[in-house]
Amino acid sequence: MATSALTSREDIHTAEDRFRTKVQKTESCWLWQGWKLPKGYGGFWYARRDGYAHRFSWELHVGAIPDGLFVLHDCDTPPCVRPDHLFLGTQADNLADMDRKGRRRTTPRFGADNPNCKLTPARVEQILQQLHRGDRQVDIAADHGVSQTLVSMIKRGVAWAA
């Protein structure tokens, strides 16, 4: 059974008006200009709850979203709400789409390959030298802007192991 968050004509009209004021139409995508979630997807309040702007766009332009299906982006642009850039699919469809486009990482990234990494191999070498000299872990951590726990993990070979 399909569910629709759009419950009455008044809700649709009010939400539709608010929605349209937050969309910037470009040559390719319709970019959401309202608030965004951490991964860049548009957030939109409708039907008395927070939801995704691209899901609202689908409901507004295409219709109800069947239970168990997601609204996926063909253009791979999270803030896009253009209905012809969206399609319905399962989580398996989403993962297959990511694989086809080379967007899914199947292996974790370690060390300098991790985008959240604070250290470089050269700085790890400096840490190891400081440890070898007998410097205190807490002081080494402060020097490099990392936690004492990370320094300890480097010392034990748990992190940044060769």
Describe this structure in words.
The protein has 162 residues and is α+β, with helices and mostly antiparallel strands. It folds into two domains: 2-100, Alpha-Beta Complex (Homing Intron 3 (I-Ppo) Encoded Endonuclease, Chain A); 111-156, Arc Repressor Mutant, subunit A (Orthogonal Bundle), CATH 1.10.10. It contains six helices and eight strands. It has helices spanning 9-21, 53-61, 91-100, 121-133, 137-144, 148-156; strands at residues 2-3, 23-25, 30-32, 43-46, 49-52, 65-66, 70-73, 86-89. The strands form four sheets. Strands 1-6 form a two-stranded antiparallel ribbon. A two-stranded antiparallel sheet has the order 2-3. A hairpin with a 2-residue loop joins strand 4 and strand 5 (49-52). Helix 4 (121-133) runs antiparallel to helix 5 and helix 5 (137-144) crosses helix 6. The protein is elongated, with a radius of gyration of 24 Å. The termini are far apart. 16% of the residues are buried. The mean pLDDT is 87.
Q: Structural class given helices, strands, pairing?
A: alpha+beta
Number of helices: 6
Strand neighbour order, sheet with most strands: 1-6
- The oligomeric state of the chains shown is single chain
CATH-derived topology of the largest domain: Homing Intron 3 (I-Ppo) Encoded Endonuclease, Chain A
Radius of gyration: 24 Å
Report the major sheet: 2 strands, antiparallel
Coarse shape: elongated
What is the average per-residue confidence, as pLDDT, rounded to a whole number? Answer: 87
Helix content: 25-40%
End-to-end separation in angstroms reads 54 Å
The total count of strands amounts to 8
SSE string: EHEEEEHEEEHHHH
Q: How much strand?
A: 15-25%
What is the CATH first-level class name of the largest domain? Alpha Beta
Quickly count the domains: 2
The CATH architecture classification of the largest domain is Alpha-Beta Complex
Low-pLDDT residue intervals, each spanning 5 or more residues:
none
